[in-house]
């Protein structure tokens, strides 16, 4: 069985549970047709179901809606064998107009008291600097979360979108407190930065431990898309950053790998992944990146970079819909040195699929010990008019000795609907039965401003 460091997989050295561990089911599994009761939630936000917040043995749900009244809403629902309740157990409504609280929610024990703390971004928060963005920390405890933020850490400059994306770094410095990476994807003009924060007994240390900035000034939005996980096999979280936009256009995107260590993170990337020659600047290579874990069981983790707008040349005879994911296989010398790359696509989606806009790695859906990949394609570009349906899709690509399978398992939204499945999702064993479940929420749309939460239960036997 091959294990890897999952996202947020370490709360702190003093705590005997994990924030996000891989769930190995008892045999192969698929999503069953059985769904838990649907729940109406504020729409258009994000989901996280990786943590047992109240320590009762069940994973709990964090859902957000940054656009709710333009202030934002965060809700927590405690899990059980029956799933989640309609009424939230904790609810926080943003107190500032246009703060948009709720981006990239997660739970980490940053103060080392043994209870996970709730952390959310508010990327247009105005504090000492207008629209600089902020992250809000709610300390957890046996009675739940504080009703007001225990900490507010503000962004570095105006209009910098600080807090747009956040990722857990585990406890990279081994001091017993969880650590965190936060992006500010328009800091420094349009280049963007990622700030590394360490935990302490008082919470997150306000001064960043280090800052990652763009290694190439001619690319924009550094940090808008990034992921963290063990990409080198040393047990410490590494950071993969994608950039789909070059200044003035004309060049495909890039992806950068920063290796973590107990000493922290260097501002110099350890590897740069360049798009294949046939990828165009308009294909949005680097729009999404994911640290996958060990897909093929050779002991080295893999990384995926998507190009959701990639369209194969018609002369190739490839009739598959637009969008591709490029999987880079690891080796002792890194990703480029392995010389092995696999391109995967969706065999059964239409031209609006935007395949790979969201990816989720570091999961094992069929319990075979190989890392799998969950891919979303919401088709929500169709929904911008408010009239066209966009049901959306989710696919699971399973790992194995030869890499990812060519035939994925699929779940789609209802035909003719505005479900937008594939835009907002997570995967975890929420009912405690040992099977991986899929949690989805539809994005906000002109025709459907409310969100609808669905849990597709894991079931033995891939079909």
From TrEMBL:
An example molecular function term from Gene Ontology annotations: integrin binding
Pfam families the record matches: FG-GAP, FG-GAP_3
Superkingdom field: Bacteria
Any one Gene Ontology cellular component term annotated for this protein: external side of plasma membrane
Keyword RNA-binding: no
Keywords associated with the record: Glycoprotein, Repeat, Signal
KW Signal (keyword) present: yes
Name recorded for this polypeptide: FG-GAP repeat protein
């Amino acid at each position: 069985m091959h294990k890897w460091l999952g996202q947020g997989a370490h709360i702190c050295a003093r705590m005997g549970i994990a924030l996000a561990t891989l769930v190995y089911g008892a045999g192969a599994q698929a999503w069953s047709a059985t769904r838990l009761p649907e729940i109406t939630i504020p729409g258009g936000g994000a989901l996280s179901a990786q943590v047992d917040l109240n320590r009762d043995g069940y994973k709990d749900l964090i859902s957000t809606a940054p656009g709710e009244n333009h202030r934002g809403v965060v809700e927590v629902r405690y899990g059980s064998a029956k799933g989640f309740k309609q009424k939230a157990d904790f609810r926080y409504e943003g107190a500032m107009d246009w703060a948009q609280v709720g981006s990239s929610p997660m739970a980490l024990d940053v103060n080392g008291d043994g209870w996970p703390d709730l952390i959310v971004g508010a990327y247009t928060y105005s504090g000492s600097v207008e629209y600089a963005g902020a992250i809000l920390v709610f300390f957890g405890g046996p009675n739940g979360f504080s009703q007001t933020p225990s900490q507010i850490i503000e962004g570095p400059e105006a209009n910098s979108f600080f807090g747009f994306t956040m990722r857990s770094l585990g406890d990279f410095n081994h001091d017993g407190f969880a650590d965190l990476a936060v992006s500010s994807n328009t800091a420094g003009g349009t280049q963007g930065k990622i700030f590394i924060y360490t935990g302490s007994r008082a919470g997150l240390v306000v001064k960043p431990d280090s800052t990652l900035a763009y290694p190439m000034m001619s690319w924009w939005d550094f940090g808008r898309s990034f992921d963290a996980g063990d990409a080198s096999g040393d047990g410490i979280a590494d950071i993969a950053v994608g950039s789909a936009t070059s200044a003035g256009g004309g060049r495909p995107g890039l992806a950068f790998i920063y290796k973590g260590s107990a000493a922290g993170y260097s501002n110099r990337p350890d590897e740069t992944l360049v798009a294949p020659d046939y990828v165009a600047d308009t294909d949005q290579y680097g729009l999404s990146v994911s640290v996958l874990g060990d897909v093929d069981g050779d002991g080295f983790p893999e990384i995926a970079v998507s190009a959701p707008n990639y369209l194969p040349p018609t002369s190739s005879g490839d009739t598959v819909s637009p969008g591709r994911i490029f999987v880079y296989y690891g080796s002792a010398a890194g990703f480029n040195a392995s010389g092995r790359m696999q391109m995967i696509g969706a065999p059964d989606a239409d031209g609006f699929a935007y395949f790979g806009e969201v990816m989720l790695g570091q999961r094992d859906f069929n319990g075979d010990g190989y890392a799998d990949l969950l891919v979303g394609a919401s088709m929500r570009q169709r929904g911008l008019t408010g009239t066209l349906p966009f049901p959306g899709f989710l696919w699971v690509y399973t790992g194995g000795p030869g890499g990812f399978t060519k035939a994925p398992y699929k779940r789609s939204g209802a035909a003719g609907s505005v479900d937008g499945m594939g835009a907002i999702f997570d995967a975890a064993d929420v009912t405690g039965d040992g099977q991986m479940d899929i949690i989805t929420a539809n994005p906000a749309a002109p025709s459907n401003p409310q969100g609808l939460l669905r849990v597709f239960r894991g079931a033995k036997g891939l079909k």
